[in-house]
Design a protein that fits this description.
- The complex is a heterotrimer of chains A (367), B (354) and C (214).
- Chain A is α+β, with helices and mostly antiparallel strands and 367 residues long.
- Helix content of chain A is 49%, strand content 13%.
- Chain A has a single domain, classed as Cytochrome-c3 Hydrogenase, chain B.
- In chain A, the strands form three sheets. A three-stranded antiparallel sheet of chain A has the order 1-2-3. In chain A, strands 6-7-8 form a three-stranded antiparallel sheet.
- Chain A is globular.
- With 354 residues, chain B is an all-alpha fold.
- Chain B has one domain.
- Chain B is 68% helix and 0% strand.
- Chain B contains 14 helices and no strands.
- In chain B, helix 7 runs antiparallel to helix 10.
- The N terminus of chain B is likely disordered.
- By secondary structure, chain C is α+β, with helices and mostly antiparallel strands.
- Chain C folds into two domains: 94 residues, Alpha-Beta Plaits (2-Layer Sandwich); 62 residues, no CATH class.
- The chains are: A alpha+beta (367), B mainly alpha (354), C alpha+beta (214).
- At the A-B interface, helix 4, helix 5, helix 7 and helix 13 of A face helix 7, helix 11 and helix 14 of B.
Chain lengths: 367, 354, 214
C-alpha cells in the first residue's frame, strides 16, 4: 500500500473571522489541520490616520489618535501629547503627570482584562470574556466620570489633562482596584491550572527571544520571551521612575507565559495606580498652551509602553499649527509580522491560541 | 407503582386509537398506518417542544453564569424566545451555495434531525411511558445516534466549503473515537443487568437511590464519568465541540446553512444533548425510579440535572484541540473504560456486589 | 496523582461558574432602565440658551467650527450693519461628530455643550443633521453654569446674568483645582486649551481665528 496522497490547500482566515480580532486576514496554507504557512494580509482597517493628522491642528489630532488604538486610547493621547510637549518644551504640571499615570495604568488594566476575556474566548471558554469585561466596566465608568467618554477619551492633552478628576473619583478608583484584585483570584481559578487550558497553551507558539527582538516585537509578548525590557523603566517617561513596581518577565515565550505575564502586569498596574493615588498632589492640571499651538520647527519621536508594546509617534513640525508629518508605531504591527515565523507547524487551533495571546488589535496595525 | 401490565402505556393508547379508528369502518392496514403516524407525531411534538425549551434553558443558564439576563423580552423571562427564533428562521431566505452538492446538501439536516429523534423510540420517559420496549434497546440507541455523524459529514461535504469540510472530518473522527469508551461504559451496566432492554435496565435499579447503578456498580462513578465525557463529545459540546469550533472553523459543518436548515441542525444538537443525558439517567441514575412524584417527573428532573451538568461544562471550560481530543479518547478514556469493564465483569462473576 | 489534580481543577472551575449562577445580573434591561450618565458625559451637541431671555448664547464667533476636528459644525454668522454678528445658521451633522468635546471647550460664551443624552438613532441619515432650532430645543432644559463675563451688557439682551446656585460642577466649566461648582469662581480660570488665554468678552472678530484654521 502506497503512501496516501495528500494535498495542501489554502484557507482564508478572515478578514471576517471570529478569532482575528477585527479584520485581519491570514492566508493559511494547510496540510489537513496543520498550518504550513501563514501570510498575514493587512489593510482592511486602514483609515489613513497619519494623513488625516496632517490636515488637523495639533489639538485636533488627539481625537484622531483616540482611533489609532481604541482599546487603550489614553496611551495614544499620552504619546501624542508627549511628543508635542517635547517638541515645544512644555513643562507638564505635577498633578497632571500623576493623573496621566493613573489613567494610563487603569487603561492598561482594562486592556489586559479584554485580553483575558478574548483569549479565553478564542480557546472556547466563553464565560471568562464576560467576567473580564465586567471588571473592565468599573474602569470605563471611572473614565467616563472623569472625561465624559467610555472609549475615545480625548483626555490627555498637550500640556496636561483636559479635566480634573471629580471628588468621588479617588474612593471609587480604590474600590474598583480592590474589586479587580479580588476577581483576579477567580480568573486564575478558572484558567490557570485548568488542564484543558494548560495543554492548549503550554509549549504552544514558542517565540524565541532572538526572533522577537529581530522583529521589533515589544511589550508583554517580548517580556514573555524572557527579554527584560519595559520602556516605562528603561526609557522613563512621565513620572514612572517615582513608583515602586516590578517589570514582569517570563522565560518560556509560549502562550501560557504570555497569558500569565499579563495577569501579573494587572497586579503591577494596580500597585502603580495605588501609589499614584496616594501621592496625588494638588495643583494645576494643565500648562498654559495656546489653542493655536505652534511648536518650533523640528522633529521628535516619543514612545511609551502601551499594553501591546512600544507605541510611538514621530512628528515633523514645520512651525505651523499643523504637523508636517505624523507617523504612528504600534506594537501590534511587529507582532503580526513575526507571526508567520513562529506560528506555523501547529494546528489551526494552535494558531488561534497564538494569535489571541499576541493580543493584536487591527486598528493599530492598519492605522 | 410498578404494576407491570405486560403492555406499555403508549402501546395501550395505540391499541385504543386503533380500536377507535376500526370502529369507523376503515380498513385494517390504513388504521395501523394512521395510528403509527399519530403516535409518532405526538412523540415528535413533545420532543420538539423539549428541544425548544432546552435552547431557552441553556441561554438562561449561560446568562446567569455570566451575570446577564439572557432572553427577557418574550413573555416571562423570555420563555417563548426560541419559538420566536424558530419562526424567524422559518421565514428566512434559504441561502444555498452555488457549487454545493445538491443532494447531499439538502438531505444532511434532514438526516441529522431524524437521527436525533430516532433514539426516542426506546426512551423510557416514565413507568410504562415508552413507545416500544425493544429487546435491543440500548444497542438501538447507540446505532441510531451514530447516524448524526453521517449527517455532519454530509453537511461538511455538501457545502463545498473548506471550513465545513474540516468540521465534518473532525466530527467523524471524534464521534467514532468516543463511541468506543462510551460503549465500554455502557457495557459495564449491561453486564450487571443482563439485558439490553431499557425497561429492564431501569427496573434493575428500582427501589432506593442506593440501587442506582452509579452507586451499585463497583466502579459506578468511573463508568459514569467515562460515559458523560464520551457523551459530551458525542453531542458535540464544549469542551469537545471541535466540529463547529466557532473561533477556529467559524461554524464548522453548518457554516453554509441558513434558515430552517440551520434550525434543524441546531435543534438536533439540543435533542442529542437531551438523548445522552436521558441515557445517562437511565443507565446510572435509576431512570424513572423515585418516590411520591409521577415517574416521568423523576425522569425529566434527573435528565435536566444531567443537562445542567453538560451546560456547566460548556460555559466553564476551554475547548480541546483536535489531536489532544483524540489522544484523550484513545490513551486515557478507552483504557480506563475497558479496565473498568473488565474489573466490573470479574466482580460480577465473583458476586462481589449487592 | 495527575489525574486527580486535574479533576480537582476542573471541579474548581465549575465551582467558580456555579457560584455565579445564583448571583444577580449586573446588566440592565436597556430601554426600560438606563444608566444615570455621570456629569460631563459627552453625548449629543446642543446649543444653550440664556436662562432669562431664552435666546441663544451663541455669538457666532466660529471658534467651535474651527476647533471641530471632523468639520461637523457648519456655522454662518455674517456681520450685520452695526458690525455685530448675526447668527444665521448653525448646523451640526451628528453623523460626522466624533464626540471629542473640543467645541464645548473652545466656546467662551457657554453657547455649545455636549449633553449627557446619547440616544439619537434615526432611520434616515439626514435626520442626524440638526439645525439651529433643533439644537436650541435640545438644549432648552440643559443645566449649565454660566461662566460668561457679566459686565458689558452691550451686546445683548442679557444684562447681568445671575450665576446659578446650582452646586453641581458642569463639565464645561469644571475648575481645575477644585471640583467645586461656584459660578463665581469660574470666569477667571480656564482649564481648557482652546479657551484661549486672552478670553474674548464678546463676539469680536479679532479673536475668532484662535481655534486654528481648517
Amino acid at each position: 500500500m502506497g503512501k496516501l496522497k495528500t494535498e495542501e490547500f489554502v484557507v482564508n482566515m478572515g478578514p471576517v473571522h471570529p478569532a482575528t480580532h477585527g479584520v485581519c486576514r491570514l492566508m493559511l496554507t494547510m496540510d489537513g489541520e496543520k498550518v504550513v504557512k501563514i501570510e498575514p494580509v493587512i489593510g482592511y482597517l486602514h483609515r489613513a490616520i497619519e494623513k488625516v493628522c496632517e490636515n488637523r491642528t495639533y489639538p485636533q489630532c488627539i481625537p484622531m489618535m483616540d482611533r489609532f488604538e481604541y482599546v487603550t486610547s489614553m496611551s495614544t493621547n499620552q504619546v501624542f501629547s508627549q511628543a508635542c510637549e517635547r517638541l515645544a518644551e512644555i513643562e507638564v504640571p505635577e498633578r497632571a503627570e500623576y493623573l496621566r499615570v493613573i489613567m494610563l495604568e487603569l487603561n492598561r488594566i482594562a486592556s489586559h482584562l479584554i485580553f483575558y476575556g478574548t483569549t479565553a474566548m478564542d480557546m472556547g471558554a466563553l464565560t471568562p470574556f464576560l467576567y473580564g469585561l465586567r471588571e473592565r466596566e468599573l474602569i470605563i465608568d471611572l473614565f467616563e466620570m472623569t472625561c465624559g467618554q467610555r472609549l475615545t477619551y480625548n483626555y490627555i492633552r498637550i500640556g496636561g489633562v483636559s479635566k480634573d478628576i471629580p471628588k468621588e473619583f479617588i474612593p471609587k478608583c480604590r474600590e474598583a482596584l480592590d474589586i479587580i484584585e479580588g476577581k483576579l483570584v477567580d480568573y486564575e481559578g478558572l484558567l490557570n491550572e485548568n488542564p484543558i487550558w494548560l495543554i492548549r497553551t503550554k509549549g504552544i507558539g514558542h517565540l524565541p527571544a532572538e526572533l522577537a527582538t529581530s522583529f521589533g516585537v515589544s511589550g508583554p509578548v517580548l517580556r514573555a520571551s524572557g527579554v527584560d525590557y519595559d520602556i516605562r523603566r528603561d526609557d522613563p517617561y512621565s513620572i514612572y521612575d517615582r513608583f515602586d513596581w516590578k517589570v514582569a518577565v517570563c522565560q518560556n515565550g509560549d502562550c501560557y507565559d504570555r497569558y500569565l505575564l499579563r495577569l501579573e502586569e494587572i497586579r503591577q498596574s494596580i500597585s502603580i495606580v495605588r501609589q499614584a493615588l496616594d501621592g496625588l498632589p494638588e495643583g494645576n492640571i494643565k500648562a498654559k498652551v495656546s489653542p493655536k499651538f505652534k511648536p518650533p520647527v523640528g522633529e521628535v519621536y516619543s514612545r511609551i509602553e502601551n499594553s501591546r508594546g512600544e507605541m510611538g509617534v514621530y512628528i515633523q513640525s514645520d512651525g505651523t499649527t499643523k504637523p508636517l508629518r505624523v507617523k504612528c508605531r504600534g506594537g501590534s504591527y511587529n507582532q503580526l509580522q513575526a507571526l508567520p515565523y513562529f506560528g506555523t507547524g501547529g494546528l489551526v487551533a494552535d494558531l488561534v491560541a497564538i494569535f489571541a495571546t499576541l493580543d493584536v488589535i487591527l486598528p493599530e496595525v492598519d492605522r | 407503582m410498578s404494576d407491570n401490565l405486560g403492555n406499555l402505556e403508549l402501546i395501550h393508547v395505540f391499541y385504543w386509537l386503533k380500536e377507535l379508528l376500526l370502529s369507523t369502518g376503515l380498513g385494517e392496514p390504513y388504521v395501523t398506518i394512521v395510528s403509527y403516524v399519530v403516535l409518532g407525531a405526538v412523540t415528535f411534538g413533545v420532543l420538539a417542544l423539549l428541544a425548544l425549551f432546552l435552547v431557552w434553558w441553556e441561554r438562561k443558564i449561560a446568562a446567569h453564569i455570566q451575570q446577564r439576563f439572557g432572553p427577557m423580552r418574550t413573555g416571562w423571562h423570555g420563555w417563548y424566545q426560541t419559538i420566536m427564533d424558530a419562526v424567524k428562521l422559518l421565514q428566512k431566505e434559504d441561502v444555498r451555495v452555488d457549487k454545493r452538492d445538491k443532494f447531499v446538501f439538502f438531505w444532511a439536516p434532514v438526516v441529522c434531525f431524524v437521527a436525533a429523534f430516532l433514539a426516542y423510540v426506546v426512551m423510557p420517559f416514565g413507568n410504562q411511558l415508552i413507545v416500544a420496549d425493544l429487546s435491543i434497546g440500548i444497542l438501538y440507541v447507540l446505532a441510531v445516534t451514530t447516524f448524526t455523524v453521517i449527517s455532519l459529514l454530509m453537511a461538511g461535504w455538501g457545502s463545498n466549503n473548506k471550513y465545513a469540510l474540516l468540521g465534518g472530518m473532525r466530527s467523524a473522527a471524534q464521534v467514532v473515537s468516543y463511541e468506543v469508551p462510551m460503549v465500554a461504559a455502557i457495557l459495564t451496566v449491561i453486564v450487571y443487568v443482563g439485558s439490553l432492554s431499557m425497561v429492564d435496565i431501569v427496573e434493575a435499579q428500582s427501589g432506593l437511590f442506593i440501587n442506582w447503578f452509579i452507586f451499585k456498580l463497583p466502579f459506578g462513578p468511573i463508568a459514569f464519568i467515562v460515559y458523560i465525557i464520551a457523551a459530551t463529545a458525542e453531542a458535540n459540546r464544549v469542551p469537545f465541540d471541535i466540529p463547529e469550533a466557532e473561533q477556529e472553523l467559524v461554524a464548522g459543518f453548518n457554516i453554509e446553512y441558513s434558515g430552517m436548515k440551520f434550525a434543524m441542525f441546531f435543534l438536533a444538537e439540543f435533542v442529542n444533548m437531551f438523548t445522552v443525558s436521558a441515557i445517562a439517567v437511565t443507565l446510572f441514575f435509576g431512570g424513572w425510579n423515585g418516590v411520591f412524584l409521577p415517574s416521568w417527573v423523576w425522569f425529566l428532573g434527573k435528565t435536566f440535572l444531567v443537562v445542567l451538568l453538560l451546560m456547566m461544562f460548556r460555559w466553564t471550560y476551554p475547548r480541546l484541540r483536535v489531536d489532544q481530543l483524540m489522544e484523550f479518547a484513545w490513551k486515557f478514556l478507552v483504557p480506563l473504560a475497558f479496565a473498568n469493564l473488565i474489573l466490573g465483569s470479574i466482580m460480577k462473576y465473583l458476586g462481589w456486589y449487592w | 496523582m495527575g489525574v486527580f489534580k486535574n479533576l480537582k481543577e476542573l471541579i474548581k472551575g465549575m465551582g467558580i461558574t456555579g457560584k455565579h449562577l445564583g448571583r444577580h445580573a449586573i446588566t440592565i434591561q436597556y430601554p426600560e432602565e438606563k444608566w444615570t450618565m455621570p456629569e460631563g458625559s459627552r453625548g449629543v451637541v446642543v446649543l444653550l440658551s440664556d436662562k432669562k431671555t431664552g435666546e441663544l448664547n451663541c455669538t457666532g464667533c466660529g471658534l467651535c467650527e474651527k476647533a471641530c476636528p471632523t468639520g461637523a459644525i457648519d456655522l454662518d454668522a455674517p456681520r450685520g450693519e452695526d458690525k455685530k454678528r448675526v447668527l444665521k445658521k448653525f448646523v451640526v451633522d451628528n453623523a460626522l461628530c466624533c464626540f471629542c468635546g473640543l467645541c464645548e471647550e473652545s466656546c467662551n460664551f457657554c453657547a455649545i455643550k455636549m449633553d449627557t443624552r446619547y440616544e439619537m438613532s434615526v432611520l434616515d441619515k439626514k435626520e442626524l443633521i440638526w439645525d439651529m432650532g433643533k439644537l436650541q430645543e435640545m438644549g432648552k432644559d440643559v443645566d449649565y453654569v454660566d461662566t460668561r463675563k457679566k459686565k458689558k451688557p452691550k451686546v445683548a439682551k442679557k444684562p447681568v446674568v445671575k450665576p446659578t446656585e446650582d452646586a453641581k460642577p458642569e463639565a464645561a466649566a469644571v475648575n481645575p483645582g477644585d471640583a467645586k461648582p461656584a459660578a463665581e469662581a469660574a470666569p477667571d480660570k480656564e482649564p481648557e486649551a482652546p479657551k484661549s488665554p486672552d478670553k474674548p468678552a464678546e463676539g469680536d472678530d479679532k479673536k475668532t481665528e484662535s481655534g486654528g484654521e481648517n
